[in-house]
Amino acid sequence: MKVLKFGGTSVGSAARMKEVAKLITDGECKIVVLSAMSGTTNTLVEISDYLYKKNPEGANEIINKLESKYRQHIEELFATPEYKQKGRELIKSHFDYIRSYTKDLFTLFEEKVVLAQGELISTAMMNYYLQECGIKSVLLPALEYMRTDKNAEPDPVYIKEKLNVQLELHPDADIYITQGYICRNAYGEIDNLQRGGSDYTASLIGAAINASEIQIWTDIDGMHNNDPRIVDKTSPVRHLHFEEAAELAYFGAKILHPTCIQPAKYANIPVRLLNTMAPTAPGTLISNDTEKGKIKAVAAKENITAIKIKSSRMLLAHGFLRKVFEIFESYQTSIDMICTSEVGVSVSIDNVKHLNEILDDLKKYGTVTVDKDMCIICVVGDLEWENVGFEAKALDAMREIPVRMISFGGSNYNISFLIREEDKKAALQSLSNALFGEVQ
């Protein structure tokens, strides 16, 4: 069985929902994970903001606008009086429920209940539409099986057990529809998966049922070997290793959140990125297979700050690096890149919230210099150190670009360059020409 996930833009209107319905009704049994219709979650956040500020009139105005929008979706989605009425009743019940929170104390718990309504509505609408089309569709309530533990991490044993119970209740279904993003926490309260959202849901479900493939459908045409908004003549990447995908995602590529594909990686289930606007395109396949001797893609991460700590006391001094890293840890600031020498260490960060405090603490150990408005360029592929010449090819492409730091060897799939943001376009184009020019 396959697991298919469709994001908010893929189900963003009645017309888009009908297109998704065509894609999923190919005769194969599958589980389909849906996000809220595009714009809904942001509007529910706005409603929650009014309720936090104890402004029920403002909240009700936004609620009424959103309900009116959904009523229009219902009229456009359904053809028969029976299902139009079912749709109207569905919308009324959910929005009456949201309105009930304008009368009482509003906390984080209530906010998460309100935010969950988007996914609950979109999945119910799709389920009704499939049934109207004569498809044996069943709604799998995510709140019955998707749970996180006391550390807010998914509980795979619970998910597998409870999901199989739900599937066994409806053995004859053609399509199972379920909600992405939402779950219950260890205390039984409605919560959400945060990082990766619906993609994470699809990956967890795929691992729980040992799916043959997980498909992530978006309005983006798979993964490209460079940023098509900046670089001329980019081309699609048809296959990535899970580690390559994680590197690209971390360094800014429009691809899956690194966390959300971990369950699929560990269960050895391939993930395919597909485009709802071009459903026949092959997309990008992510798996545990490596294409040997191949550079796959280049990505860039902006708004980076580089910090150098230089100290003669560092020479042969054990514990120096630990003291430096503990400062960043104490301010909950992650480090992207690190380079060391006998007399200093350079690091890069993307979170400057506590930069001044970090710099003050670092000055206890040496001379500190800072470079702002930097950018990390990440080259991803089969970069095992035995592969002679790959790093030289990347370095040669950067020969005209001033490079502040280079990181190579921390991963078998990545070589990274820290450069000024103003040099980003030139660096991406030069790397694209050098690494992919022959295949354009």
Automatic annotation (TrEMBL):
Q: Which reaction does it catalyse?
A: L-aspartate + ATP = 4-phospho-L-aspartate + ADP
Coiled-coil stretches are none
GO molecular function terms attached to this record: aspartate kinase activity; ATP binding
Tell me the ranges covered by the Aspartokinase ACT domain, including all copies: 377-434
A GO CC term?
Answer: cytosol
- Which biological processes are named by the entry's GO terms? homoserine biosynthetic process; lysine biosynthetic process via diaminopimelate; threonine biosynthetic process
What residues bind substrate, as annotated?
Answer: T41, E119
Q: What are the entry keywords?
A: Amino-acid biosynthesis, ATP-binding, Kinase, Nucleotide-binding, Transferase
Q: Which Pfam families does the entry mention?
A: AA_kinase (PF00696), ACT_9 (PF22468)
User: Which family does the UniProt entry place this protein in?
Assistant: Belongs to the aspartokinase family.
In its UniProt entry, what is this protein called? Aspartokinase
Species name for this entry? Prevotella heparinolytica
